[in-house]
Write a structure and sequence with these properties.
globular, about 350 residues, Rossmann fold, about 30% helix, alpha/beta, six-stranded parallel β-sheet
Length: about 350
Amino acid sequence: MRAVRKREREPGLVLDEVPVPTPGPDEVLIGIEAASICGTDLHIRRWDEWSSERVQPPLTLGHELSGTVVAVGSTVRDVAEGDYVSAESHVTCGVCFHCRTGRAHMCEQTRILGVDRDGGFADYVAIPASVVWRNDRSKLPPEIACLQEPFGNAVFATSTQDLAGRAVAVLGCGPVGLFTIAIARAFGAGRLLASDRVPFRLELARKLGADDVLNFDEVEDVPGWFDSHNEEVGMGVVFEMSGALQAIQNAFQIVRHGGNVVLFGIPARPATIDVAESLIFKNLTVTAVNGREIWETWYTTRWLLEHGVVDLRPLITAELPLEQFDEAFALLESGDACKIVLRPNGVVT
């Protein structure tokens, strides 16, 4: 079968021919119908410091996937051939304190599809039956079903806040930031403002419901801009989704006293915060969020998408055959794209 692989410890990816994996006793084999590219995949392709320390080649990338189960292991009982599924990318241990107390998303032994074990940029992938999520094909086509995994990150982040009627800022309009904008609008946010430096992303933010957007490269006084667009009152909830150090600083400057800051973006190096002035004296509530709750977030995610509360289709920039993966990655690197979906079977809607 074909697979997009990190073959060597160097920048770049290759399309390899590899054997179809044989599922273990507790695994299933999925014929991939759609797999979307994530920022993590870009890091692995670039072979930056994080990926070079984490990833062990050879490895098939891809952790946002959907497809059909074509074979099941001998001990699998709750997944059957023909099931139309997606996957929770975090394969947890099941026996640690966090897993046993309903917090599997905090499992310290987590192995991630496409990072720690082979993923879904391929014709087939074998994964544990324990991370399989069934879909309704009549409600979620493959290109949307594969987005449930990253969309769940934004669902989890927004679920930590009461957004109805509140002034909300989203800093960073990458895919998860844009998901957050769509959810915040659906959940009744009052004034919704967003910032980024990429015009393409800012236009998508408007389409998804942002009342106004800021290209922070064009304004010297970012906190002043947010104040002037919110009746000179600080924002009630600020979602920092980029990880940029300046955006983290801005988050604590633009939030009102007694407000909430949600930190989701991962900074490339340690961030410095004046704890007294930025947190204590402002009486802030700060929430750090990573991943999704397994499986509670998935139920909310499915409801939002199946009932049309949130429409993710405007965020799909392109759907390309698997063999055009280089074109897909280049498009993402250009900044003129949001989510790109690879279709191994060549069926592009």
